[in-house]
Amino acid sequence: MSTSDALLALLEPAPAHGYTLKQDYDRWFAHKRPLAFGQVYATLTRLEKKGFVALADVEAGHGPDRRLYEITPDGVTALDAWVSTPQEPDLFATSTLYARLTVALLSGRDATQVLAGQREAHLTRMRELQKVRRDASGADLLAVTYELAHLDADLRWIEESGARLDQTRQALAAASGRADR
User: Fold this and answer.
1) How remote is the C-alpha of 95 from its chain's centroid?
2) Which ranges carry the Transcription regulator PadR N-terminal domain (predicted)?
3) Burial bucket for residue 54 (CB in 10 Å: 0-12, 13-18, 19+)
4) Residue 72 dihedral angles phi and psi, to the nearest 5°
5) Burial, 114: exposed, middle or buried (Cβ in 10 Å; 0-12, 13-18, 19+)?
6) Residue 160 gets which letter from DSSP?
7) Are 4 and 46 in contact (CB under 8 A)?
8) What span, in angstroms and rounded, lies between the C-alpha atoms of 157 and 98?
9) Which of 78, 143, 147, 177 is the most exposed place for a label (fewest CB within 10 A)?
10) Per the confidence metrics, is the pTM higher than 0.70?
11) Sequence-distant (≥ 6) Cβ neighbours of residue 21 within 8 angstroms
12) Side by side, which strands form the sheet with 66-71?
């Protein structure tokens, strides 16, 4: 999800100041990494140049002026297109697990240990999320169950990969011209 799409979505119900948008973004979308204020204002500037948001009001006060932004009809159209367009499934997950395992296999490192360590990290995170899920509702419940489903899929991949490490190691070695490993 891009910051631009998120800010457009947050502006759709009502105009808002950058500070409010940052707080709302962090509440709904930044479970692990809060959005920097600079990124909020840089994104709003880009959206304004594209015609997706407009300055609704400027309030003078102590310190910098407070700017109130609102979504434009073109911004609503862009948001509609983003929401209704299915996400392209990636060939490989954005996780580096695949890359780390491949490097371990190609370099002769202990790939079993890589998988075991990642398995334990996934299980630890799943236990944490199970506790959170008990009291979660609304968007928080959606986020928790989404992460749990992805962790579960990763665990299945870890188990399947572990079961065929020797075969995979041989195939990678042959493909890289290092059949002696």
Assistant:
1) 10
2) 7-80
3) middle
4) -95, 170
5) buried
6) H
7) yes
8) 10
9) 177
10) no
11) 7, 10, 11, 40, 44, 69
12) 16-17, 66-71, 53-59
Classify 101 in phi/psi space as left (phi over 0), alpha (psi -120 to 50) or beta: alpha
Q: Let me know: does 92 contact 98? Beta carbons within 8 Å.
A: yes
**Torsion over CA: 142, 147, 150, 155 (sign):** negative
Residues 6+ apart with CB under 8 A from 31: 143
Angle at 87 between CA 162 and CA 160, to 5 degrees: 10
Please, what are the averages of pLDDT over each run of 10 residues along the chain (181 residues)? 86 92 86 84 96 92 85 93 72 66 78 90 93 93 93 92 87 66 41
Q: Are 6 and 29 within 8 A, CB to CB? A: yes
